[in-house]
Amino acid sequence: MAAERVTIEGISVPTGHFIGGEHVASEATFETRSPMDWSWKLADISRGTAATAQAAVSAAVEAFPQWSAYSVGERAACLNRLADLIEANKDAIATVECLDMAMLLESLKLRLVPRGALNFRNYADIIVAAEERVWSSKGTQNRVIRMPAGPAVIITPWNAPFMLSTWKVAPALASGNTVILKPAEWSPLSAALLSDFINEAGFPKGAFNIVQGFGHDLGSALVSDPRVKRLSFTGSPATARKIGHAAAENIVPFTAELGGKGPFMVFEDCDIEAAAKKAAGQFDDSGQVCLAGTRLLVQNSVMDAFLEKFHAHTDGHVMGDSREAGTTMTALIHPDHLARVAAFVDRARTNGDEILRGGKVHKEGGLWYEPTLIRPKSNDSEIVQHEVFGPVLTLQGFDTEEEAVALANSTMYGLSGIIYTSSAERAERVGRAVRSGVVWVNCFLIRDLSAPFGGIGESGIGREGGDYALDFHADLKTLQIFEGSVS
Length: 487
Prior knowledge:
Elements (H helix, E strand, L loop, with lengths): L4 E4 L2 E4 L2 E3 L2 E3 L4 E6 L2 E10 L3 H20 L2 H17 L1 H12 L3 H25 L3 E5 L2 E9 L3 E4 L5 H14 L4 E4 L6 H4 L2 H7 L6 E3 L4 H10 L5 E5 L2 H14 L3 E4 L5 E4 L5 H9 L14 E5 L3 H13 L19 H17 L2 E4 L14 E4 L6 H4 L6 E7 L2 H8 L7 E5 L3 H10 L4 E4 L18 E2 L4 H7 L1 E9 L5
Parallel strand pairs: 9-10, 9-12, 10-11, 12-13, 14-15, 14-19, 15-18, 17-18, 19-20
Antiparallel strand pairs: 1-2, 3-4, 5-6, 7-8, 8-22, 13-21, 16-17
Helix pairs in contact: 1-8, 2-4, 2-7, 3-4, 4-5, 10-11
């Protein structure tokens, strides 16, 4: 069944699946609407089934021998051509994602969509530059070889869907694996545009596939297929547990990035103005960022000065249309998510936690929630211990460095941390003590694509980025040859 397309703001977008190099549709569909105006239905999207999953995996299995046999140079050329096509179409991709997910259009054009192209270029460079590890031992020469593993299922979240899809797809393809990508059903459109570029970039049919639909039918069929050799997921711990069971059943390597509850630590010796401005910046994208420092931990000696500046910067936020240059805070992705965020705050209020600012929907009928700051009754409060994934921060004071570190490490999460201090010794000491996959000192969200990325505890398992992702997507083999026995 041939897939249909929809025109959004003059941009043609596929609404079906992409399997074996062809756009195909399902009889059943689901709607996607714009968070900026929930009455605006953007498209009806094909709703995949277990049969769709089986077809996509079959296409990936069939394409694997051809794609895995491509030389490193041939694979890199395909990745670079794909990056070229993304760059040439960045405005269209940004527009579609802005409407579908409500991220700021300017940010998408300048940062996130170009990062998608960079993800492919980065892995093209990495695989070309990669050298096998070679050493001599006990009269033998040893070489470690990365062998392509096979079809990889990649399941991505609804926030920053295009960039996060490319972040996971790039190392899988670079490694010689074939891919089945399932974007989130709340923001399916921008990732779907990748399918328009794959054939033109020279990938074999079936090397890259996209399926659209829901986790409980399509997703579960994908992750439980024994022909799949790698599983990569970003989303909730609850869903990760289900995928982990499937991975264990088939003995398949599994990596998961599951969100966070990052500490934002402000010490008395820091630049308070810079810290307060960056703290208010945690409301960007309405807090729908897993790496955000949502727990403000501020030394009591500078609490008043910090709060004065923090409130001033927060007052400067503008909630509105994500296409407009003056907007700084976006709509939340979906009415269900708005209700979830509001329920967290309502329970905090009932619990006796103090709402210092915000705490309500911005305007009736819209999906904007006011930037909210809460002083919890205790560190055990739900609002401290669980990820809200909205524009909600908590505020706690501390007196000593030891107390700050204890608070920072007191949740089940461990994805990111932020430290503001002018002391190099403290930066080193506290940076090492905070239990998280990444810690930023006097900055935030600066990423080196060669560095490992991932979480601790309920923030996930495994690492992505650079060689770490290549190792995950490969079967490692040691080739050991008795020295002097061959010439």
